[in-house]
Specification:
single chain, 137 residues
């Protein structure tokens, strides 16, 4: 997914660990990144992932927490990596959710194809980004 890097706040510049603000499809998001091997103003192909899941712990809450059938991420506090996620299940194994500007893999929590098309809610304690197709050494 192509994004524009808006801001980098270094947590530990010597190891390239940062809070990064990026924009995609006219929306801005803040995420954790390590290593952040790019600069403000770059247009990059990145992967967005859930670094730390936050819940809800109950299946019923997850599948009843989005009655308005929204597809969006709502930041819990300005500048934080934490989000309330609302979206539509598009695949299973792993469960993949369309949250509007992109899709997120939630994990391998079900093998039941009946959940495809359902609208769900969950919390993200840390949204992560990384460069796509990074060479692993």
């Amino acid at each position: 997914m192509k994004v524009h890097i808006e801001k980098i706040d270094w947590l530990a510049e010597e190891i390239r660990e940062a809070t990064v603000t990026f924009s995609v499809k006219g929306q801005k998001f803040t995420a954790f990144c390590h290593p952040a091997d790019f600069e403000v103003g770059d247009d990059l192909d990145i992967e967005v992932s859930i670094g730390v899941e936050g819940g809800p712990a109950e299946w019923e809450e997850m599948f009843s927490g989005n009655p308005d059938r929204k597809k969006c991420l709502v930041q819990k506090r300005p500048g934080s990596w934490e989000y309330l996620a609302y979206g539509k299940v598009v695949r299973i194994q792993p469960l993949t959710v369309d949250v509007g500007p992109f899709e997120l893999e939630y994990g391998d929590i079900t093998h039941d194809p009946r959940v495809i098309g359902e609208y769900i809610y969950f919390e993200i304690l840390r949204l992560d980004i990384s460069l796509k197709n990074r060479d692993v050494v």
